[in-house]
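To: structure subgroup
Subject: Chain for Friday's discussion

All,

I'm putting the inputs and outputs inline so they're searchable in the archive.
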Amino acid sequence: MMNDIYLEYILKKKKTGGQKAIIAVIIFAAIIVSVALLLLIFATATALSGTQFGSFSFSIGLVLIAFAWYGAYLLMSMQNIEYEYILTNSEIDIDKIMSKKARKRIASFDFKEINICANINDNEHNHDYKNITVSKTFDVTGDKSRGNVYFVDYSQDSENYRVLFQPTSKMIESIKRFNPRNVFVMED
């Protein structure tokens, strides 16, 4: 009888150009909001000088600037993405972790029931990768330029799905044990 398998792997996603552009826009927007609020604070404080509301408006404005930068920080930190692969025997759960706080399940399936799992660069099996159409593709790779990208095609609820992921060599060897006919390990 096989021993139980439990493997966990966290992979940090490399920031894309689009994510870097989003961060730049967030910083630019926070600067614009801060300058606008500073101008509003000084205009209000000058207009209300000598009253109790003058210093109060200055305090409120500084708190609003702090909130604007805190909101910018939260939006920028949501661009820090990691993927967690949890393999329990033949079943895998793939979660997206944003900013090390928020977690969302991306895919969950059993390798015993997949159609195919192979490296996208495996010349013997990548015809399936190139020629089979699927309803939805989940790209949960960290950095495709590092290589070792595998695709898994599976069916669930009458839909065909594809997952692109970067398992460790131990993980892919463990997966192969559960479905040797449909899991193809590319030799180095």
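Points worth raising on Friday:
Residues 114 and 154 are 5 Å apart (CA to CA).
DSSP finds four helices and eight strands in the chain.

D.
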